[in-house]
Amino acid sequence: MGQWDVFLSPYKQAVDELKIKLKGMRTQFGIQGNTSPIEFVTGRVKPLASIYDKTREKGIPFEPSEQLAEQMQDIAGIRIMCQFVDDISTVTRLIRQRDDLRVVEEIDYIAHKKQSGYRSYHMIVEYPVETINGRISVLAEIQIRTLAMNFWASIEHSLNYKYQGVFPEEINNRLQRAAEAAFQLDEEMSSIRSEIQEAQAYFSEVKEATNPT
Ligand code: 0O2
């Protein structure tokens, strides 16, 4: 096993465990007959190529080290998608209450969107992983966002990859307009939230009645 595999293995375990635990929260809301503030959860260990790019940006050595573990806080990355903006504060509260992790930093790119138009709520957490050699604490970044914020971020991320961060003016203007449209969509959905949730509850009852298990 290479040095990188050894270094990244607790991050992989952290991502796997956090995904299961956060998905479990969604299931628990369902069992209690409540609408979940979590729509879906994804996670990934940052690919080596992205780790390399970021070490260049930050001016730190590209090697598995304590310095890298301290300065690159998103090697383990979790994304939680919510239907409504208000769900985000519910999810952050639930995360802060947990005893199996410690929140070390919170960055609110929703109240203060980035210049790119990016909106999302970031929590950096310290998460202990139990291994055969004892406990190893790793940092993980949890990004919490609405479906609309996620749609915008995914598209912008792919374009960023294509243009290496230097967008032609036309694309840049369109992305800014799309960010504004995503914001408006979130606002509209929030204002008809109770109607949407009543409809969702009605459909899940109908589904249960027609597919009894
Ligand atoms: P990937 O491919 O998702 O891993 P910092 O060290 O805090 O000064 P850092 O680490 O860049 O700077 O933190 P920041 O700005 O909070 O960004 C961390 C992650 O948030 C990014 O990881 C993206 O996932 C997401 N993000 C931040 N800004 C933007 C943006 O403008 N557009 C999009 N689409 N995503 C953004 P990576 O490493 O960039 O990418």
UniProtKB/TrEMBL annotation:
The keyword Acetylation does not apply. GO terms for molecular function: ATP binding; GTP diphosphokinase activity; kinase activity. InterPro entries: GTP_Pyrophosphokinase, NT_sf, RelA_SpoT. Its EC number is 2.7.6.5. The keyword Nucleotide-binding applies. Transmembrane segments: none annotated. CDD domains: NT_Rel-Spo_like (cd05399). Keywords: ATP-binding, Kinase, Nucleotide-binding, Transferase. Residues 43-167 form the RelA/SpoT domain. Pathway: Purine metabolism; ppGpp biosynthesis; ppGpp from GTP: step 1/2. One of its GO terms (biological process) is guanosine tetraphosphate biosynthetic process. Homotetramer. Belongs to the RelA/SpoT family. This is GTP diphosphokinase. It comes from Ureibacillus manganicus DSM 26584. The lineage of its organism: Bacteria, Bacillati, Bacillota, Bacilli, Bacillales.
